[in-house]
Amino acid sequence: MRIRIVDAFTDRPFAGNPAGVVVLDQPEFPDADWMSRVATEVNLSETAFVHPLDGDEADYALRWFTPAVEVNLCGHATLATAHVLALEGTVRFRTRSGVLTATTTDDWITLDFPTAPLSPVAPDPELLDVLGATPVSVHHTGPNTDDLLLELYDEKAVRELTPDLATLAGYEQRGVVVTAQADGPSADYDFVSRFFGAAAGVGEDPVTGSAHTALAPFWSEKLGGRSDMVGYQASARGGYVRVSLRGDRTHLTGQAVTVIDGTLLT
Predict the structure, then answer these.
(1) Residues recognised as catalytic
(2) What is the pTM of this model?
(3) What fold, for 2-114+252-263?
(4) What is the pLDDT of residue 223?
(5) What one-character DSSP code corresponds to residue 116?
(6) What 8-state DSSP symbol labels residue 51?
(7) Rounded to the nearest 5°, which phi and psi values hold at 228?
(8) CA-based angle 95:192:223, to the nearest 5?
(9) Quick one: which of 54, 123, 186, 225 has the most CB atoms within 10 Å?
(10) C-alpha–C-alpha distance, residues 17 and 9, integer Å
(11) 29 three-state secondary structure
């Protein structure tokens, strides 16, 4: 059985967010425990498992696993899967978050995901101590993402954040997104972010597509109703996500590069 490692939301290897992709020949998923063990062995933030469907609703069924849990929504591993399938045009995936589509045009892949609703919440003083941050605002995102989104005062605060990941792993939410507007008009992006998913077995995720389904509506409102923006996730690897807000749907566009193509022996 073939397994690929794909760097997503980047046009060059060893950047963006790496994901494992396993394309199954069988018409159903294997045991969830086996998929979880594979994801733990791969030890990336997400490993995607996909198999073909014979029906009108979708072309493939798709699931995502971190080294610790199965998740409801993942952007970079979906983009990586579409890249591996190498199908020009649109492919439909049946997932825990409904039917998602990926449209490939030349080297660019656009994902059509549900927009995450945002609910203002009161800052948790203990969480702020763990993060070492003072936010402008705090929102809960959901239901597919279940993250906390914190706007910080400036880009420097986002880039310099050093949270206590061990303590953060004890919180209920899937992850914590921190974000700020780009420092100036010379930047080639509109906002910056980082994502910490310790509770899901991911310390800092390099580029989190699903988080941008909340970042898109958040920054659209902050930036005067703009619907098309570029986000830069300022992890050590870094990556760009083009976002287009389309009401209750958000389009996420990026590129991907296969860096390993191997065989899963068991």
Answers:
(1) 46
(2) 0.95
(3) Diaminopimelate Epimerase; Chain A, domain 1 (3.10.310)
(4) 96
(5) P
(6) E
(7) -115, 120
(8) 90
(9) 123
(10) 7
(11) coil
